Amino acid sequence: MDSPDKRKSLPSPVYIVDGSRTPFLKAKGKPGDFTAVDLALGCARPLMARQPFSAEQLDEVIVGCVMPGPDEANIARILALRLGCGKKVPAWTVQRNCASGMQALDSAAKDIALGRANLVLAGGVESMSHAPVLLNNDMVGWLGRLAMSKKPLDKLKTFSALRPRHLKPIIGLLRGLTDPVVGLSMGQTAENIAHRFNIDRLTMDTFAVQSHQRLAAAQESGYLNEIEALYDHNGHSFLNDDGVRTDSSVERLAKLRPVFDKQFGNVTAGNSAQITDGAAMLLLASEEAVKEFNLPVMGKLMDSHWAGLEPAQMGLGPVHAITPILQRNEFSLDDIDYWEINEAFAAQVLACLAAWQDEDYCKTELGLDSALGVIDQRKLNIDGGGVSLGHPVGASGARIVLHLLNVLKRKKAKRGIASLCIGGGQGGAMLIERGK
């Protein structure tokens, strides 16, 4: 990147007028109470119920989701129909790993900016506790042979060939969180960048504790009013993100063993994002729709950027996505009032902060003349993040944009950036400004 990219991201204004999310519910070793489409409906229904227009007046519905269930192919369409959009409102699903929810927002913004739509419901959802458990190829082949065995003797012969290896399942969640190109899990890539920037275990654990403390303080202060209550079929209510550990401490986290590099690593379950179910949905509108329906404006989507980098270093994706936005808009780090950088791992966020302060990295990897500078952590993830409230991969990109807007409103601030690292070696970022 030898010179700033001067292209205009959006040719006409795109406004975010409202948004809601579900509580983020920690996976507890079994399928959770809600499927992905249940979660999406849980926040989309109350969101639409308070609008001055009907669901049938939406131009489209776009949903980010990485692992929809077997009955949720094109989950956006299922959501649209169950939401009451009617058969004429088109809907489509996007998948960009951890940034799928942000990709949905970006796709909606492009359609609005190009005049193809005026009102779009967009966001993301993931029910990670419902991630599929798959049959391996040996078992699939055996079942095929069994189906083709017509005579009793043939069936008996096929059954006699069944071996324990056929019964070994493929855990979809673990396979999905592993990069097939470089053969590394996302946790191993976090270890890579922690080593690159000399981030030690104490620093990671301290960041993780801070995440829990900030989420707990936000819950106590009532700062998470973006959450809509969920109710299961037995009438039980779910009101808050339930992954927060108010008793978290560096001493407690120090007792946990490394997960991804058991001999030399420092990334543990305690300083990593939690496996979680959740959804976040936002309403995006054109200037014409804002005027027609007299809609309140939470904020304006000013710019976005997607970047690629070495998959084994994927956690540094926010550095590569945010920097071009800053250059394009001629901003320094200090010009951004608040930041939401998704906490896939404590080490990953800390490595991003370190990369911007590293002159060699900024010169060789970003094409800058010097180090970019320091982000004030008092303005970063001020109400916690993925370590404390979880990272339902399809939903997080939408959640951080929604929460950033609420932070800007609460703090009476103007400008913020939301960003994520993306499995496979990418980064995504959005520049948001409050109000018109």
Tell me what you see in this structure:
- With 436 residues, the chain is α+β, with helices and mostly antiparallel strands.
- The protein has a domain at 184-222 and 300-434: Peroxisomal Thiolase, Chain A, domain 1.
- Helix content is 36%, strand content 18%.
- It contains 15 helices and 16 strands.
- The protein has helices spanning 36-49, 75-83, 100-113, 137-148, 152-160, 172-176, 186-196, 201-221, 250-253, 287-293, 317-328, 346-357, 359-364, 386-389, 396-410, and strands spanning 15-21, 25-26, 60-64, 91-94, 119-127, 133-134, 170-171, 178-179, 184-185, 230-231, 237-238, 276-285, 299-308, 338-341, 415-422, 426-434.
- The mean pLDDT is 93.
CATH superfamily of one domain: Thiolase/Chalcone synthase
CATH architecture of one domain: 3-Layer(aba) Sandwich
Q: Which band does the percent of strand residues land in?
A: 15-25%
Q: How much is the radius of gyration in Å?
A: 22 Å
Care to count the β-strands? 16
CATH class group of one domain: Alpha Beta
The helix tally amounts to 15
List the helices and strands and how they pair.
Blueprint: E1 15-21, E2 25-26, H1 36-49, E3 60-64, H2 75-83, E4 91-94, H3 100-113, E5 119-127, E6 133-134, H4 137-148, H5 152-160, E7 170-171, H6 172-176, E8 178-179, E9 184-185, H7 186-196, H8 201-221, E10 230-231, E11 237-238, H9 250-253, E12 276-285, H10 287-293, E13 299-308, H11 317-328, E14 338-341, H12 346-357, H13 359-364, H14 386-389, H15 396-410, E15 415-422, E16 426-434
Parallel strand pairs: 3-4, 3-5, 14-15
Antiparallel strand pairs: 1-12, 1-13, 2-12, 5-12, 6-7, 8-9, 10-11, 13-16, 15-16
Helix pairs in contact: 1-2, 3-15, 7-12
